[in-house]
Structures are given as structure tokens and as C-alpha cells.
Amino acid sequence: MRLVFERAVPSGESSGPAGSAGAPSDSTSAASAPVPLGTSGSDNGSGPAPVSHSRPPSAPGPTSTIPPPAPTGGSPILIPDDPERRRTTSTPTSTEPIRPRSLSEHYLEQPDAGEEWEGSEDPLESGLQQDWYVDLGEASGLDTSPDTGMLSPPNVATEEGASFAMVVRRAAEVLDLKLPTVPVRTNILTEVLQPGVSTSELLLPFNEALTDVLLGTWSKPSTEAPVNRTIGRRDRPAPSDPSFLTQHPTPESLVVQASTSRGAFPSAPPDRESKRLDQLGKKMFSSSSLALRSVNTSCLLGRYSHTLWDMVAQVLPQVPEGVRDTLTQAVKDGRDAAKFTIRCGLDTTDSLGRAISSSVALRRHAWLRSTGFSGDVQPNLMDMPFDGSRLFGEKADSALERFKDSRATARSLGLSAPA
Fold it and tell me: What phi, psi does 21 have (nearest 5°)?
């Protein structure tokens, strides 16, 4: 029996000689020019399949030294109930006690002169006296079912997961953070599978500095720029970076050709199409919310790292002179790296806040498209500030009440009511 192997031909190559059926035709090869990211170009069809950044799970072999993957931002943080480890995690004493400081204190770099936070004031100047907790699914009524991908089942029965939990607890002790805990439901059959794990989950409070950045990007959801230009100029991609970092996917698809050959897109049934748009907005919101929780953890650990370097700086006078200069430079570099970690977290929060604004605007459009409101009313309702909990908010209700009163007043005076 003879085996025949065929070589897979890439999309850009021809599987036959010139002019054969394998050669791409002119109609399919012509594609619209790439649209840079951050611009408001309209796509009439779906682009190529999105690039997947997830790696397939692979369990290391018995001789592998690679630790298991850490839990994602959506997984609850379980604290191992180890008395011996608890005794070793007390705050070290020093001659000068270190006062925990917030993310927004003076050591955190402010934007350079002339730079502005688009759509808001400097988020480090004002602080909101409210606690936003990581458990967004319970606090805001989000759908936390497995289909939405908001929360993941606990999976920290690993050495790396336990180590991460201890680092978070240690950081909370040093930074004087009150971490709320909730009981974990256990089962007599499964409790033996995770020995040494306590029956409590640790929740990280969402920092108010990140909340300030978010509220600044939610002032006008439908007209908010998709990117912060100041951040875009600072974090410019290199010429060798992948194209998806700078350009939108081009609509190279037979679906696009089929839709454009019929002229304008036909109007879909309002209820069915509105439901699809609303579900798409929910998916965007869930993904951004999960990323915010990861950013919050990263900022907390960056602040904790800065505090650790402060502790090292206190013992520098006791270090021998031969290594003091090297250690002093290491302390300076460590502090700077921690500050830039927090700054990157704030910048990422700004971009995620704009993504949430886009998802809110999409869901508002899905609800408004079948209301019958006039063309002047819908844009105003689309651009009402988003408060983080209600899709439209109280200002939208007040605007509708005023519009309703104006129509009633016009009718009582015998005038034509506004459409």
C-alpha cells in the first residue's frame, strides 16, 4: 500500500500552473486598504479569522521544571491554610516604620507637561471614596455563566497558585489593605483532591485610582475616541511588530463580495438584530471587565514591589561599602520599574475604559433602534454618561421626561409637537 502525502498550499500560493484554477482571481485578490487602528472606518463584512493568542494546555512531564500556569484574573484566589507559613509572613520590623501609601502619591509619575488625559482630568488628582470590588459578576449583576467567560472555576491547587495567593496576602498586609473573604463551598468527595487549601476565598478591592480613569472615559460613550493619543504616541509599535497592532483586519472574504453585489444591506428584523447587537456588547463588556481585574492585581503587585525596595533602602547604611553602590543602583532601578508597572496599569485601564464605552454604546444602539425616537433624541441618549451600573442611567430618564413634557406642552398650546 502506497501512502500519498499532499503539501498544504498557503493562501498566497497557487496550487497549479499559471492560469489554472488554483490561481487567485482578480475579484478575490482586490481588498480594501488596511484601516489603522483607532480610526472610525466602516467595515461591510467580516475580516479574516481573529488571531488566537491562547496556547493549548500542556501538562509538563515528570522531569519538567516548568511550573503549572497561574490562575487567570477571573479565578478566585484561595489562601492555603498553613499555620507555619502564616507565622513566616508577618511584616518585618525595621528601625523606621514604613507608612503604606496609595497608588496616587507623589512618587508615581505624572503625565509630562503638555500631555492631557483625553476626556478627563488627571485621574491621580481626585479620589472617589467608594470601594469597587473585583467580583464584578455579583456587584453589577453581570451574567457569570460559563458561556460569558466572566468567572472561571477555582483552580489554584498548584504550587504556583498557592505562592501567588501568599504574595497577594503579603502585599495586602504591607499596604494595609482590607481584603474581604467569602466562604468556599466544599464537598465531601472533592475536598480530598485539594489538600491544604482553606475554605475561604480572597477578593482584591478595585483601586480608586483606576476607577477615576474609567469614569473619565465613560463621559461620552458613543463619541469617545477608541484610543488615548497620548498613550498611543508613547507606546508606539516597532516596524517589525505584527500588523494587527497597527491596522484593522481587511475585509477579504466572499461574504463581503456577496453583500456588496446586492447593494445596500437589507434592514434586519428589529428584535432579532437588536438581540444580536446586545449580546455582542455584553461579550465586549465581559472581556474588558476581566482584563480590568487582571490590571488591578498587576498594579497592586507593582505597588508592593515598590514598598519592598523601600525596605531594602532602609538597610543600605548597614551594607559593606564594596557592594553598597551596586545595591543602591538596584534599589533605584527597582523603584523605577515598580512605578512604570503602575503607570502601564493606568494606561491599560484607560484603553479598557474606552472599550467598555464602545460596548455600552453598542448596547444602547441595540435598544434605541426599535424605540421609534427621532434622529435628534437617539444621539443624545446614546452619549449620556455611563455610571458603571445602569445601561442608560438617571440622566437619560430625566432627558426623556423633559422631552415628554415638551410634547405635552406643545399639544396643549395647539402647536405641533416635536417628532
Answer: -70, -20
CB atoms within 10 A of CB 260: 13
Instruction: Provide the residue count of the chain.
Output: 419
In whole angstroms, what is the distance from residue 109 CA to residue 118 CA?
Answer: 17
- The per-residue DSSP string of 58-120 comes to ----TT--PPPPPPPTTS-EEEE--HHHHHTTSPPP-SSPPPP--TTSTTSPPPPTT---TTS
Indicate the burial class of 289 (C-beta count within 10 angstroms; 0-12, 13-18, 19 or more): buried
In whole angstroms, what is the distance from residue 302 CA to residue 101 CA? Answer: 12
Q: For residue range 366-413, what is the model confidence (pLDDT) as tens digits?
A: 888 777 777 777 888 888 888 887 888 777 777 777 766 555 554 555
pLDDT, average across residues 175-196: 70
Classify 408 as helix, strand or coil: helix
SS3 395: helix
Q: Hey, CA dihedral for 171, 174, 175, 177, is it positive or negative?
A: positive
* pLDDT tens column, 228-286: 888 777 777 788 877 766 666 665 545 445 444 544 433 333 567 888 888 888 888 88
Sign of CA pseudo-dihedral 379, 380, 385, 387? negative
Strand partners for 270: none
Residue 360 and residue 375 in contact, taking contact as beta carbons nearer than 8 Å:
no
1: cell is 500500500
**11-26 burial: b if 16+ Cβ within 10 Å, else e:** eeeeeeeeeeeeeeee
Q: How far apart are CA 124 and CA 122, in angstroms?
A: 5
d(CA 256, CA 45): 5
Q: How far apart are CA 389 and CA 380, in angstroms?
A: 19
Asked if 98 contacts 310 with a C-beta cutoff of 8 angstroms, the reply is yes
Phi and psi torsions of 206, nearest 5°: -75, 130
Q: How many C-beta atoms lie closer than 10 Å to residue 200's C-beta?
A: 14
Q: How many CB atoms lie within 10 A of CB 404?
A: 10
Question: Which uninterrupted H or E stretch holds 80?
Answer: strand 77-80
Task: Report d(CA 35, CA 41) in Å as an integer.
Answer: 7
